[in-house]
């Protein structure tokens, strides 16, 4: 009759020690992978959102806006896109040009009810996602796909630079090396920031190095 034996105490301790060493060595690599994966996903999400809003504005022949949101139902009027955002038809479709039409605010009280997308809060530690060019709280696309960028005081312009940083800005030797940005042009198209001078930090629309807060 064969007997089956479990691990001895020494074998178990050795196994656990090896596992602990492997975990310690693997964790930084996994964390880096997760940080980079989050960055790519969150950059792509906002680009896709702007593309959706722009195409819907042209298709519907109505203003469509994107605004920062904390509850995924209303606009927060704050230049903090880390909390999420919404896309909505910025027109109550009553055949009359009202003050609330195309103002970059989801005016449900004025019968603006068509919510096209709601994006939740971004995951990851200490993520910062803001417009560093014009402090945008909302972007409106008209029926030709052209953007108007609003700040919290309802001042407007036509461009924006949405920069994303994560907690590596507090730990890395070069805190700005992991900053990435979406540059929204006056035509309504987007492009990614790039490191044109190869100094390890990507630049904004004016070729100035991105700088994490």
Automatic annotation (TrEMBL):
The chain crosses the membrane at residues 12-33. Residues 190-213 are annotated as: Disordered. The keyword Transmembrane helix applies. Residues 43-188 form the General secretion pathway GspH domain. It is found in: Cell inner membrane. One of its GO terms (cellular component) is type II protein secretion system complex. Its main location: membrane. Residues 198-213 have a biased composition (Polar residues). SUPFAM superfamilies: Pili subunits. NCBIfam families: IV_pilin_GFxxxE (TIGR02532). This is General secretion pathway GspH domain-containing protein. The lineage of its organism: unclassified sequences, metagenomes, ecological metagenomes.
């Amino acid at each position: 009759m064969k007997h089956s034996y479990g691990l001895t105490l020494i074998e178990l301790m050795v196994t656990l020690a090896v596992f602990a060493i492997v975990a310690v060595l693997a964790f930084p690599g996994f964390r880096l992978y997760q940080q980079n994966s989050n960055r790519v996903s969150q950059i792509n999400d906002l680009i896709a959102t702007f593309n959706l809003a722009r195409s819907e504005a042209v298709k519907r022949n109505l203003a469509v806006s994107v605004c920062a949101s904390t509850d995924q139902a209303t606009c927060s009027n704050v230049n903090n896109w880390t909390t999420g955002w919404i896309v909505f038809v910025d027109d109550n479709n009553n055949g009359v040009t009202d003050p609330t039409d195309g103002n970059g605010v989801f005016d449900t009280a004025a019968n603006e009810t068509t919510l096209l997308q709601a994006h939740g809060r971004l995951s990851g530690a200490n993520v910062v996602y803001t417009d560093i060019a014009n402090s945008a709280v909302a972007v409106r696309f008209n029926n030709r796909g052209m953007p108007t960028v609003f700040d919290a005081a309802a001042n407007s312009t036509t461009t924006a630079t949405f920069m994303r940083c994560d907690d590596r800005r507090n730990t890395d030797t070069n805190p700005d090396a992991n900053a990435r940005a979406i540059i929204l042009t006056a035509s309504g198209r987007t492009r990614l920031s790039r490191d044109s001078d190869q100094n390890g930090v990507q630049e904004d629309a004016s070729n100035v190095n991105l700088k994490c807060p």
